[in-house]
Specification:
Largest sheet: 7 strands, mixed
CATH architecture of the largest domain: 3-Layer(aba) Sandwich
Order of helices and strands: EHHEHHEEHEEHEHHEEHEHEHHEEH
Shape: globular
Radius of gyration: 21 Å
Length: about 350
């Protein structure tokens, strides 16, 4: 079996943060990294990294792919879709900071109430859909050319400072006007008034991103996809692949994946901890990944149960890809080093 393992935010983004990085016990990961060949590219989002893995380039219609990956969502086979995710924008030292819906504790009933009002107000523009409490969509009423829709995915801006929410292009002028009107409607929503009275952050804007129509099916370089993230699942389904939830651990994956197959596994549990600078959650998550995945996968690679392993990580340092085969894992002179030392080397631009 060949395995492509995608782990966003694998390395804590502050190399001098001793609380986050010191005394992390992850010998399996450290050995795997030390005995692999590293390729670095400029930093990019998890979404772009997944697009690369599936051979997609340019203006990838992430929204249509994500709709396709939802458990209970409308058909994405036609029309122009946007992710219209609920967010809270707050002013901090004259700059806007964005909190994504996952951090707002939105109830599904609140989401449906707000989206129903948006559909009443903007029926001529398109139709909003609720997939989950924090994943919303907008299907535009007519085929629309939005040009080069240069908006970062929500994962790239959550917990961070944001600038313009939509591109300053003639094609996006209608969406900019729509967003302004949506923000006014949100301001007067009873659900937001209740949230404010309860001391909860309001849903005061939407993050519109990933615009486009679902392209024709294409062949991906995998036989199966293991992921809970809807975008990854949708990319797999669009390629006609078997898509499954991630198993409990590496042993289950090795038992269920066919010999000689090519599998993609997404483990995205570290992303939220890094986005919201929660060092304790990052350490706990990394230790869990080490026990369930990194240590047994490194042993499986060295023992020949896996013929080749690629580890992809979108990080603040760079977009990283480590690749190794069985023979490289037996190069004992390539000694593992602590993850803190790896972070320091990455910050210096070293391999």
């Amino acid at each position: 079996m060949q395995l492509t393992l995608v782990v966003p935010e694998l390395v804590w983004p502050e190399p001098d943060d001793r609380h986050a990085l010191d005394a992390l016990h992850c010998p399996g990961l450290n050995t795997l990294i030390a005995r692999s060949r590293l390729r670095r590219r400029p930093p990019q989002s998890l979404e772009a990294t997944l697009g690369d893995a599936f051979g997609l380039a340019g203006n990838v219609p992430y929204a249509a792919f994500r709709v396709l990956g939802e458990a209970d969502a409308p058909s994405a086979s036609e029309g122009c879709w946007l992710c219209a995710d609920p967010v809270h924008l707050r002013l901090h030292q004259e700059r806007l900071i964005l909190a994504d819906g996952g951090s707002l504790g939105i109830a599904l009933e609140e989401a449906r109430e707000i989206v129903a009002e948006l559909n009443r107000q903007f029926a001529d523009v398109g139709r909003f859909h609720v997939a989950t409490a924090d994943r919303w969509y907008l299907k535009l009423a007519a085929e629309t050319d939005l040009g080069h829709f240069d908006v970062l995915p929500l994962s790239a801006v959550a917990g961070r400072r944001v600038g313009s929410q939509l591109p300053e292009t003639p094609q996006a002028r209608g969406l900019r006007q729509l967003l302004n009107e949506v923000q006014m409607v949100l301001h007067g929503q009873p659900a937001n008034e209740r949230r404010e009275a309860a001391g909860q952050p309001t849903i005061n804007s939407l993050w519109l991103w990933g615009a486009g129509a679902l392209p024709a099916a294409h062949k991906a370089n995998f036989d199966g996809v293991w992921a809970s993230l809807p975008l990854a699942r949708g990319l797999g389904r669009a390629s006609g692949l078997v898509v499954q939830q991630p198993p409990e651990n590496a042993a289950v994956l090795l038992a269920r994946a066919a010999a000689g197959s090519r599998q993609l596994l997404l483990l995205d549990g570290l992303q939220e901890a890094v986005q919201y600078e929660d060092a304790d959650a990052y350490r706990a998550g990394l230790h869990e990944l080490e026990a369930r995945w990194f240590a047994p996968l490194q042993k499986a690679l060295a023992g020949g149960a896996i013929s080749r392993l690629q580890l992809h990580a979108s990080t603040a340092y760079a977009t990283l890809a480590w690749e190794s085969g069985r023979g490289e894992q037996w190069q004992l002179w390539r000694r593992p080093r602590p993850l803190a030392a790896t972070a320091q080397a990455l910050a210096r631009g070293e391999r």
